[in-house]
Amino acid sequence: MKLILPFIISFNIALALGSEILYLMPVATKSHRNVFDPLIFELAKRNHHITIVSPYASPNFEPHQNVREIRLAYNIDSQMFTQDLFSNFETRSLISGFLPLKYVLAPCCESYLQNPQVKQILKQRKHFDLVIVSNVYNDCALATAPLFGSIIIMQSATSLIPWTYSSIPQPPSFIPLNVISMQSKMNLIQRLNNAVSWIVVQIIMRYDYGSYIQGTIEKNLAENPILSEAEKKVSLILTNADPVLTSPRPSVPTIQDVGGMQCKKAKPVPKELEEFIQTAGNDGFIMFSLGSFAQSKSMPKTLVKDLLQAFSRLKQNVIWKYEEELEDLPSNVKISKWLPQRDLLGHPKIRIFITHGGMLSLQESIYNAVPLVAIPLFAEQPGNAARVVEIGIGIKLDFQNISGISMYEAINRVLDDKSYVVNMKKYSAIFNDFIENQVDKAAYWVEYVIRHKGAGHLQTGKEELNFFQYFLLDVIVFILCISYIFAYVLAKIVQLIVRKKNRK
């Protein structure tokens, strides 16, 4: 007992003082903060000290004494990105979508590495008890994470990124690549497409994009941290996956799904919006938003005009997140540069959500049981929209074929076909059926990894295997060689027997 008592006292003192945690998200959108902030706030409440490196300050809670923000000067120009996206949508492919990423994201890496406060932390060689890295296109931050601390966690704003180095087997035979429009039940041609796409993305992200980002790091940092080595040091991955939008797949203890942390009960909407909603009576309203990054104002003006004409024919009011003023709006259409999305989705008179299909928007829709019209644009949105169609909670429209007529027909189909409401209520019940609060679950696993010094006992043998070993290619080659030798020897024996018989 005398030997145990000092340990208990020291452990409780450490717990009371909290841990020093560094949050790295140099590449992020405003919506990503909606995923990370609930966990950050919970950890701060538990007396941990958080330093956040991000281009965006938190919009979700007041400054906390345990939270320090390092604001980066550069982030991706969302308006320029969206204009390029819409103007080249018809010719856009998987390869053309991924190859330019290195040029788009390298400046984010440079802004992060050249930030005076980040450089000061590196110079002081400050050691953090834990480093949490955003999993979405933050390879630059992941590579440098070991310079700040020996324990690393990745947190994803979506489900598991396909090219993430992890112990989870992701066979393309039944796990659809989330950056293409593919459902989980695939025929031969679809499985071929899924497998080829998976290989292409792996090659681009690991050998083209990864090499370019590695070169950017070497140019801006005296140390030479290696991305592939940092990947092997990740103790845990927290994903924003959930049992509805993420199709069933294998898992391991080092992957914890905590999807929907940002979902909350709706608050009353602003008075101006409420008054507009009430003018439609029992017909209710439809919300239209392309998220926090893509901008509706960059859509072709002819398409905007067609959509407004289609909306004017509806009985429902339409609330559209549109980033600039529009003239001659129909009386049943209201535009705003910003919308309280979570509160509008929880409003009793909402009928449909027209969305870009981002993970957060879909989760908030399912949380509130609001049927969908999904218009996927980029990243994981095509896969999300395919899942929406697969489980029957909404309709997908392809942006390159969208028109006022197709939008009007899609809206009326969802309104008239009650199966969408029935299915959405079913999956909303599944989505909300958790054994524990997702924020508490995420905080538990963060503290678990800290308590157990990286939780090495959870790691599988995958970390020590190369590509050929992981896919058993060495075993297959060995078996083929043995089979060939056996067949060769057997053939020679048969030849000898035949020759002896012929001589007789």
From TrEMBL:
Pfam families (UniProt xref): UDPGT (PF00201)
Signal peptide: 1-18
PANTHER family: EG:EG0003.4 PROTEIN-RELATED (PTHR48043)
InterPro entries according to UniProt: UDP-glycosyltransferase (IPR050271), UDP_glucos_trans (IPR002213)
Similarity field: Belongs to the UDP-glycosyltransferase family.
Protein name: UDP-glycosyltransferase 211D1
CDD domains: GT1_Gtf-like (cd03784)
Record field: transmembrane: 467-491
Domain of life: Eukaryota
A single MF term (Gene Ontology): UDP-glycosyltransferase activity
Keywords, comma-separated and alphabetical: Glycosyltransferase, Membrane, Signal, Transferase, Transmembrane, Transmembrane helix
